Amino acid sequence: MNSNHKPIQSFRIVQFMMTIYRQRMTRILLPLAVLAFIIWEAGRELKSFNLARMLHELRRMDAAFLIEIGLFSLAAVAAMSAYDYVIRYHFKLQVKPGVTFRYAWISNTFNNVFGFAGFTGAGLRTVLYKKSGVPLGVITSAVVFLSPVVITGLSLLAWGAIVHLYPVQPVLDAHPWLHWALWGMALYLPLFLILQRSKRYAKWFNKGEGPLSWLTISASIGASLLEWLMAGLTFAWIGSYLLHELPVYAIFGIYVIAAIAGLISLAPGGVGAFDIIALLGLQLAGANPDRALAVLLVFRVFYFIIPWLIGLVLAALEMIPRSERLSQLAETGWDYSLNAWQKVWGWPGQYRFLADLGVWALGKLVLVSGVVLLLSAATPGLLYRLRFAEHLLSLPVMRLSHEISVIIGIMLVVLSHGISLRIRRALRLALALLLAGSVFTFIKGLDFEEALFLLFVALMLWISRSRFYRVSAPLNRHNIFIWGGLSLLVTGAYFMIGAGSNTPFMRHIHAKVHLDFFMNRSDYGVTAVFSLILAWVFLTVYFFLRPQRGIGSLPDAQELDKLKTFLERQGGNLVSHMLFLGDKYLYWTKDEQVVIPYARSRDKLVVLGDPLGPKEQVSKAIQEFQRFADRHALTAVFYQASPTYLSIYHENGYRFFKLGEEGLVPLESFTLTGKSNQALRSAKNRFDREGYSFEMIQPPIESSLMEELRHISNIWLDGRKEKGYSLGWFKEPYLQLAPIALLKDPEGRVIAFATMAPAYDHGQTISIDLMRHLPDTPNGTMDYLFTRIIEWGKENDYTTFNLGMAPLSQVGQSEKALREEKLARLVFQYGGHFYGFQGLRRFKDKFKPQWEPRYLAYPASVFLPILTLDLIYLVSKRSD
């Protein structure tokens, strides 16, 4: 295989260009740069287009023509399957002809809409053919074979422009750089033939089997020519219908030049470059600018969008193997029931995949529905329909329907986000609005086309209704700002198009025509403002004044007692005691074998520590908790995850960031003897000699002592706000649950204290939780207090003493560490001004602990810097 690739790789320039193209930024900037250049070249000509007049031209299109061009466009896309039949014959693929056609349709339509330089089509072909049992090596060779073939047909058509088979000279003269693009494309075909017939390079094109046969080469070029010819004819037919003044061959020539420009841009479907060059070419040929823009829009819809939607359905039929469909649906754990449509389909797994693949598209369809309603309301209706509607309905009813259509359009635009998030409540409201919108858009001017489209979208939502399982989603300032701004934008567009299209439309109406149907500029302004305010008020009432569907309720005394019984039976971990602060929610699995403590920060549920319960039940519990979070459009992350559970987190889709290390002192081996412990021994002897005393008091704590400890805590805080979540704070009921270590001066006054936190591991581990001291305590106070607590733990048969976390300790030291961890290392080394990372580590190192790492487990879809900010916010706030 390596020898097959050696000739092509010997070109250093090829290696260099491939290296550059692999860079993501290059793939984004290159199409943008080409598009920017074309727009700069054509800036003056673009100023003559009027969007409002273009929309009016679209509304005048005949339904019979739309059906005809729709069928021809589907035939043009079907012609692209010739590529797959060529590789089926040449590579002897054991795939049925019908299956080959489906694979071709899926790959080609997705590539038309999304493909950069054909990579989308190549990837889908690889997946689909591999699914049918074609060896990966064979299908890879087939994909490589197709890559240089697909533009040979356009190269052949470029020769037609050069020999003046179709007139393209005006656009070439207006933009001389297109001469170079045209000749470059034309010369590609002879270069392709030379390479194919070369024994050296043909090995790479033909699996190492020598030059291709002339039959295969001719069939490949024929398939490419058929693709570009049918696409060009589709464009020319649409153009000839809307642009009666231009001959078909002239429009076809403009398509060829525009297609070359689009191909050079490497943008999906040539978006941008193709459209601008086509617009300029049609305008230079004498076409009306607004009708030229309508040609492009109709071409995009019929040749790209509609075939891709069909490809989306075909992809759903192919991606899940028949034998796995029912089992995969059952394994998801979603509480879905089969509706009538699913039973008709007969393949629940297949239906599930279609819904998963298409939910985001449904959101966009709802967005488009809102835009369609606004555009329909903004552009003047057809006069004969308005006259007929006036005989059936009164003019006030038609005006009211117009205003309601605008309100519904704005609400659908905002609701599209909720549809994309699969929120059940958004689905119900969207269905009601689509049905109402279809009625009112029909009443306002008998616009049955828009009404049918809205009904179609409503039908698609209803069919997919079982996929809308979420009961809520986070509604933050960011979302409110975005969707509020979008509603303002579309409302402003409605006003500008409506006010802008009304005046030129009036000029073409006979003076005797009744004009009460049409609104003036001020009417559009009043409708826009009124509709926007009413839509916002309605959505606010609907979403904010609904019965609250929170993510849970904080535990009460009864649930905390239940938790205590659970921990005594199942055991806990080093952070379990902090759950009794009552600021964390408790998620109990269905069988109540595992409990997961969590808090919410924006769109994340942050679990403190590992799930509590039998280890063999933890993976199942994590999956159940992930589904619970997903029902609220939230993401589950695990904070201070221990190494013991990393494999379980990994199996459930998590990646890791090291937070630091936890210091665990083995009490059996702890001693103050020896040279290395001289500092601790000296501090202890000094404090004992000066009359300081240590006392460990058991709950219940007397109220007078509790007030004294509160006074010390307030002085220590010095007006600072208490932290929360993973840190304890001064809360009297919480402090009454565990022993408290006191340090008293020679006069018997408490100068420092530390609260204990049991690990609920049957008396094996004890931790320090809250530490507070007066500001005038002597040096070494904390050394002495820690030493005495450790000795107390040893005397009371504990085996381990937990010193707590050393944040960012030993993070990012390896050369292969993640860049985020390397950045954390710099913070650890140089962030002492803000937080004493290194000082804390040195202090705890005095007690010779064994350091155990702690991790942040988070899904790959979560952006780590944003997650870090969410965690900082979570720890910095405290629930009383």
UniProtKB/TrEMBL annotation:
Coiled coil: none annotated. It catalyses: L-lysyl-tRNA(Lys) + a 1,2-diacyl-sn-glycero-3-phospho-(1'-sn-glycerol) = a 1,2-diacyl-sn-glycero-3-phospho-1'-(3'-O-L-lysyl)-sn-glycerol + tRNA(Lys). Keywords: Antibiotic resistance, Cell membrane, Lipid metabolism, Membrane, Transferase, Transmembrane, Transmembrane helix. Signal peptide: none annotated. It is a multi-pass membrane protein. Its EC number is 2.3.2.3. The chain crosses the membrane at residues 25-42, 63-83, 103-124, 136-165, 177-195, 215-240, 246-264, 293-317, 353-377, 397-415, 427-445, 451-468, 480-497, 524-545, 855-875. The keyword Cell division does not apply. It comes from the Bacteria. InterPro entries: Acyl_CoA_acyltransferase, L-PG_synthase/AglD, LPG_synthase_C, PG_lysyltransferase. Residues 566-858 form the Phosphatidylglycerol lysyltransferase C-terminal domain. It is found in: Cell membrane. Pfam families: LPG_synthase_C (PF09924), LPG_synthase_TM (PF03706). Belongs to the LPG synthase family. Catalyzes the transfer of a lysyl group from L-lysyl-tRNA(Lys) to membrane-bound phosphatidylglycerol (PG), which produces lysylphosphatidylglycerol (LPG), a major component of the bacterial membrane with a positive net charge. LPG synthesis contributes to bacterial virulence as it is involved in the resistance mechanism against cationic antimicrobial peptides (CAMP) produces by the host's immune system (defensins, cathelicidins) and by the competing microorganisms. This is Phosphatidylglycerol lysyltransferase. The gene is mprF.
